[in-house]
Amino acid sequence: MELPFAESYRIKMVEPIFRSTREQREQWIKEAHYNLFNLKSEQVYIDLLTDSGTGAMSHNQWAAMMTGDESYAGSSSYYNLKNAIRAILGFEYFLPTHQGRAAENVLFSVLVKPGNVVPGNSHFDTTKGHIEFRNASAIDCTIDEAFDTESLHPFKGNIDLEKLESVYSTYQHDEIPMVIVTLTCNTSGGQPVSMQNLKDVSRLSKKYGIKVVFDSARFAENAWFIKERELGYKEKSIREIVAEMFSYADAMTMSSKKDGIVNIGGFIAMKEEELFQNASVFNIMYEGFNTYGGMAGRDMNALSVGLNEVTDEHYLENRVKQVEYLGNRLMEWGIPVQKPIGGHAVFVDARKFLKQVPKEEYIAQTLAIELYLEAGVRGVEVGTLLADRDPKSGENRFPKLEMLRLAIPRRTYTNNHMDVVAVALKNIFDRREKIVHGFRIEKEAPIMRHFTVELERID
């Protein structure tokens, strides 16, 4: 008999979590104005809001934190991280930042000007926010298969080359500062980008003289899918695949809170010294001196270890299989999800789940609140609220995908927790026809509104 799969780690420390009653949750979510970001952590039983900074660090990472060098300039922790980035990702120059959106802020301050266009594969909220904040436009060039949740295309994060070349041929060279490739593509369901697509995007961009920038928050998960799904990579190591992936990029931003397996931190890495020097000016202004940026030395040490651990195949197998486990449980009951299951989260197709709720009443947010009320599980809407309003018309943007994202923290929950999430959604699915109304906005910010929006229920 074949041995069953088991986690590649054992638990050394635990944190108690509180199971609330439905009555408590109804009061709490009302006080939070039906915004799950406004809940206190102790009001949540299983927290799948994000996989960003919520994972469990290893004993080696905690040990590395104890030897962090907190020197203002030239700390050994900076050089530990610099060496890890050079060895694993292949970039000579890097700047530490306090997290991924800070990396975007610094890099885009150099590259993005008013009137620019930035093509890419379904830009995530902070990426699009930083582009539009600079009075530029993000253009989605993702393949059409990404928006069909039933399609089993293995690389739904791919960029459509015809769409990309149409952008390149329509706009002037100086109007396109870069193309952004998000690995894996979060907005389309944690979907990977193939190596062939990375090659083709690089080749096409060089033809037009456009920089290629990777949003690399989940680069290791992307490498895992290349190894599992793309011809010619089965026998390659994750490290070899990662090295080839980044050979096609001119620069990268990183939210280290994902595939760095740390609680805080990020960085920009570059191959050109000129770009490094220009970005350094803004990094010093916004983040801190170049050898610490927005990070403590102990966090840089933990990140240097995390980059090594995340490229271990045993770690990645455990990571991806847990996400797949939850996805399979939901599919067994006919619950509509983005297929195939992505690397960091299960994305529930809220539009197919709650067919009676009008799109103007924030379908995915409605489903997210139902899940919280059912079992104290906090997910997040990736739909109309996140899409924000069109900066010119002021009207809601209704994206092609209206999703409830269940992002699973790394090395944090067991499959028993996944079973609770699955059964909770099954209970809602069984009574879905009774859910006919959602919410209206009472108060919203002018950009990235979903973090602070206040809603009221439509009876």
UniProtKB/TrEMBL annotation:
Residues 47-423 form the Aromatic amino acid beta-eliminating lyase/threonine aldolase domain. The keyword Lyase applies. Its cofactor is pyridoxal 5'-phosphate. CDD domains: Tnase_like. Pfam families: Beta_elim_lyase (PF01212). Gene3D superfamilies: Aspartate Aminotransferase, domain 1, Type I PLP-dependent aspartate aminotransferase-like (Major domain). It comes from the Bacteria. SUPFAM superfamilies: PLP-dependent transferases. GO terms for biological process: aromatic amino acid metabolic process. GO terms for molecular function: carbon-carbon lyase activity. Keywords: Lyase, Pyridoxal phosphate. Transmembrane segments: none annotated. The keyword Lyase applies. InterPro entries: ArAA_b-elim_lyase/Thr_aldolase, Beta-eliminating_lyase, PyrdxlP-dep_Trfase, PyrdxlP-dep_Trfase_major, PyrdxlP-dep_Trfase_small. The modification N6-(pyridoxal phosphate)lysine is found at residue 258. Coiled coil: none annotated. NCBIfam families: PRK13238.1 (NF009709). Belongs to the beta-eliminating lyase family. This is Tryptophanase. The lineage of its organism: Bacteria, Pseudomonadati, Bacteroidota, Bacteroidia, Marinilabiliales.
